[in-house]
């Protein structure tokens, strides 16, 4: 069995597992939809941007926040497999270590794609529109998925280290919620206090969100030009952040998988 | 009989309060989420939100009343949980085999909830003061705030009692609080209702949280409270009476 076949089989297994458990998609979509409605129609109406402009600004932030939150599924899935003894079975098979983790990340990428489609439909119903051409739009979705894929590997590494799905879930929320909110996902950085503004401007989420907004043509008219490098070239910064995360966490997660049976 | 009830309730409340002092994490977790929301709204989102309030008035002054209601809504989920675990552990059956006033077991949980929520609210107000919350409210205003919050706590606690008595799982005993936690978000707690679109605005202006929030905000700001205070009290007392009567009926069914 070739590496590609092995990877395909393992990815297929994980996708089937997720599809047979549709509450994963429901929960992954329900919370962001609630957030989108709350921010668009309750808080958004009192934002300094006018309502419709804020809705366009917001939806990309919601998409990015969702990618952050769903990335935990990779780590939780691996931790569950570890707990249930599935990893030991994989180790007894002629399967390359990287394939097991890659398959998990790949299957979650497919699930993320489903979630993005659902959220895009909700966004369109709310009045959000992509103001650029199909190529830029595809690049925007591509950047979101690349970032989600990179985050899946971070989650995979944590999942293989922690090995308890419950602990991972709680730890992830403590890390991811500040990452999502202390960024340009929901509001521009201008109104934030100086230390938070600096953190938000250098937050990878801000680069990705601003980059996707540029690609979708959702940048507000009165948006000030940022003097921070990642927000001056957000698309490049978003890609660089994602590749950097992959470069660091693919080897780390693979090594953690190899070493996890020793403990 | 009345003395009997008071003594029994006091004894059982003491027992319930011991549970809280032995696991203070319930109070800490109750206060943690509202504080996190407060930090988020004040330091991250607050700078972009226009409340229409007079210039120089901090956003934290505007939003604190809503945060206090969220704190209460989070706190009462533990009442449902504690009552459910007591019922399941069989301790209520023991109480009923003793010469104890029947309803004192419920009232003990209610009063414990009141004490726990007072502590949680005090923690949240303390953090708000550190974050810049300021009020020129007089002692009388503070007493009015405390009174409204106490009636609100009692009203929601009896709702929690219904959940605790009728739930078939721990999740069922606590899940009722989620809509109550969410309700302040669709009210005047964080943004003025005038800025909301039609249907959302209508809902926000006709739900119980908005008049309570407006009353607390006016009391803190030393503004005339107008009709809001009566609407707020009507909601609180209405929920309290309705929930109390329902809880007593369910309780009688449960113990017979």
TrEMBL record, chain A:
Membrane topology recorded in Swiss-Prot or TrEMBL: Multi-pass membrane protein
Protein keywords: Antibiotic resistance, Cell membrane, Membrane, Transmembrane, Transmembrane helix, Transport
GO MF term set: ABC-type transporter activity
Residues of the ABC transmembrane type-2 domain: 23-260
Localization per record: Cell membrane; Membrane
Transmembrane segments: 24-45, 57-80, 109-131, 137-160, 167-187, 231-253
InterPro entries assigned: ABC2_TM (IPR013525), ABC2_TM_bact-type (IPR047817), ABC_2_transport (IPR000412), Nod_factor_ABC_transporter (IPR051784)
Source organism superkingdom: Bacteria
Pfam families: ABC2_membrane
Keyword NADP: no
GO BP annotations, alphabetical order: response to antibiotic
Single GO cellular component term: ATP-binding cassette (ABC) transporter complex
PANTHER family, alphabetized: NODULATION PROTEIN J
Similarity field: Belongs to the ABC-2 integral membrane protein family.
Protein name: Transport permease protein
Organism lineage string: Bacteria, Bacillati, Actinomycetota, Actinomycetes, Micrococcales
Automatic annotation (TrEMBL), chain B:
PROSITE patterns linked: ABC_TM2
Key word Transmembrane helix present: yes
Membrane topology, as annotated: Multi-pass membrane protein
Subcellular location, principal: membrane
Transmembrane recorded as keyword: yes
Transmembrane segments: 26-46, 66-84, 105-130, 142-163, 175-193, 229-251
InterPro entries linked: ABC2_TM, ABC2_TM_bact-type, ABC_2_transport, Nod_factor_ABC_transporter
Domain ABC transmembrane type-2: start-end pairs: 25-254
Subcellular localization, as worded in the UniProt entry: Cell membrane; Membrane
UniProt entry keywords in alphabetical sequence: Antibiotic resistance, Cell membrane, Membrane, Transmembrane, Transmembrane helix, Transport
Protein family membership: Belongs to the ABC-2 integral membrane protein family.
Protein name: Transport permease protein
Organism expressing this protein natively: Brachybacterium fresconis
Lineage: Bacteria, Bacillati, Actinomycetota, Actinomycetes, Micrococcales
